[in-house]
Amino acid sequence: MNRKALATKTVVASVLYYIITGLFGFIDRKVFAVYLGQEILGLNGLLVSVISMLSLLELGVAGSIGFSLYKPLEEDDRGQIKGIILLLGRFYRYIGFAVALVGTALIPLLPVLVKSSLPLSYVRAAYLLFLADTVLTYFTSYRRILLQASQRDYINKNTDIIAFALVSILKILLIVVWKAYLLSLAVKIVFTLIANLYLYRYTGTAFPYLRDDALRGGVSEETKKLISDNVRALFVIKLSTYLVFGTDNLLLSFFVGIEAVAVYQSYTVIINLVNSLFNNVFSYIIANIGSYILSRSKEETYDLYKKIFFANFAICTYTSTALLVLLNPFIRGVWLGENYVFSAPVVVILIFNNYSRFVTQGTEAFRGAAGLYSPRPYIKYLALAEGAVNIVFSILFAKGLNMGVTGVFLGTTVSTLVSTVSLPWIVYKFLFGRPLREYWGKYFQYLLIFLACALGSLWLYTALESAHVLLNLLLGLVISAVIPIAVIAALYRKSEEWQYFYRLVMAVLQNVRQKLPGAKQR
Asked: Reduced to 3 states, what is the DSSP secondary structure of residue 390?
């Protein structure tokens, strides 16, 4: 199957996954709020954060090994591919055992981590089910990386769509009929295990040389060194990401209360839904960039980067503007009610953090595709500095200055400055070999346009807001779409980046029109 066909299948699967997970995510959240209450909702979000902390033991193995697969897949070096997958499986078994041991050791700390009136036995049972789900995943999921690296991630997505839909339906029934939260977690374990085992068998059929005992899977010393270097760097990056974005639930629980975690989760469900398709697209792009870098010149690679950075900015500006305008009206008026809403200043900070995080996604994609996780030994610690800054400033603002929820999110705002500065420096210095001022000129230009679009849209929406909830949502949708698109089109319609994507969209639309019934007759 050619790359175009694989790309089409991946995009379709990503869109379907986005729709299914988004739809059931909203329904699950509503069911939780109505039938289980704010405390269990907050507990669920908090335990997700604790398990994410344990997942740091994965050390970035999947990312570094995924990068190492691009070249042997391109060259069809089957011995090298098998060797790398066997190495990944061995790593993941060690990691599974480590997560089980460390996770069990954390059980006595649950009363400190979880500030709740729920029975401790109930909290422990929920935690152990989360832990079992994670541990079993490490033993069964490692071959997924081969499907991702070979641009067949649509197979992973299609499998996950079926499993997620079945799990969600059963969870909803269990909670509505019996309020059986713990049983719903057990059901998730079963279906996750079935999905991973199916994919394990599928890869054995799709890549039969993985099961060929006559083929000795070996990994070159050069590849081993690259994997080793990238594992160390990616662990630091993963730790930093967790300290910046994964500790908010823990800090909110500790300084404000578990109810604040439940409210925050109502925002993260929507924000993650909006960003999930965006992330899926960039996950696919990384695999393609890896091949592109290997076969093209630096100038051609930089030309592609500029286009992706522009698309990155345009998407972030639109999604963040829509979130700023619509989050509170939707949560308050349609979904969960007044008890699940933060004040406007807190929402502004959340959305600015969201923009700051995702506007560098294209830059991050190029670093990942080029394997630039630690081009110099000290560079990996820049990411760790970001995590440390987040913890220090979040505690300072939330506790020291008594800012509560606002303080926790302001700490994240300060910390993202580290990656905002370090990411482009790494890519421009070690991949493109170009002056960094070229990046900052574009970055600040894009930032000013985003702020103008977002704040202008919010002001216009507030001025026109009425007492009719559905009318307000429609108004917000129109404003948050028209203003960013109109401003970006007016400013960039003659640019190379805009013309590139305009031609691309027109070509896709033309292709669709040609496939419509009766198109040949016309």
From this structure: helix
